[in-house]
Amino acid sequence: TVKSRGRNGFDFFDPSMEAKSLERILMENELRKAIEQEHFQIYYQPKMDIKTGTLTGMEALVRWMHPELGIIPPNRFIPIAEESGMIIPLGEWILKEACKQNKRWHDQGYELKVSVNLSVRQIYQKDLLDMIKATLEETQLEPKWLELEITESIFVKMDEATIVLQQIRDIGIQISIDDFGTGYSSFSYIKSLPVDTIKIDASFIRDVHHNQESQAIVKAIVTIAESLNMKVVAEGIELNDQVAALQENGCGQGQGYLFSRPLATADFEQFLRKEQLGI
Ligand code: C2E
Ligand code: MG
Ligand code: MG
Ligand code: MG
């Protein structure tokens, strides 16, 4: 084994540290290969108007289809893609794939909006706007059928983020704040943001049917959103009781396993056909 000399002169060897970094290196190599070989698939989760029960759009959620390990969920590799910078090419692939697919559905007569998650790292990518414009041009999807979901963590650099988001919005793309209520969120900055939709984090939805504090939070978010002309989406709806509580508190849209899990393309198409037939 290797012993290394620490900066402060102490000898140290931490096998767990070495093991971890080796795993990380392997993982990064695997991810790099996967990006080159396009070993990813986009799943789509329906977004519903909870008053009418109709479909309004879908969120694009990436999965890594590993040839030996099977499906790897985004929480396991998105953070590594972000830290290593690979989120830039991966994010571009995801956006193009989601726009291409949504354009196909539009050509089949389904007028749906696709929401794509954007990492903080992508927001501060220099040519983000050009990349988005080129993707829309190439896929021929109209900007109004695209929404980008960002999290509150981008507002660490509030001024920079605001400029980028404004530019994106100026070309007709919608912006949504994901996981609202968990991060740096505060009602004070929300008013100055170029944002169309607020997504209430699932942690407030989980107990909204029997917890008055969660109800109060939902109600407060809905009130603020209305006064700022923003829409509200509830995340992680699993129960009819939650839908009832959300309706009572004025929340208009929702997404969750109650309506559907995220679906592979073919399964989403089946969902679309059933929806069209009103089944
Ligand atoms: P998110 O954007 O907040 O997405 C919602 C997550 O909640 C998804 O997990 C979805 O499958 C899950 N979910 C939806 N409804 C329910 C429900 O009723 N109950 C429960 N327990 N979970 C529900 P997923 O697909 O594993 O994605 C996790 C996170 O990974 C996403 O959170 C997002 O932050 C990130 N992510 C996923 N796809 C992408 C992507 O294409 N790009 C980037 N940058 N991040 C992505
Ligand atoms: Mg999201
Ligand atoms: Mg979310
Ligand atoms: Mg999340």
UniProtKB/TrEMBL annotation:
Highest taxon above the source species: Bacteria
Domain annotation EAL: ranges: 24-276
Name the UniProt record assigns to this protein: Diguanylate cyclase
Part of the intact protein present: 425 to 703 of 703
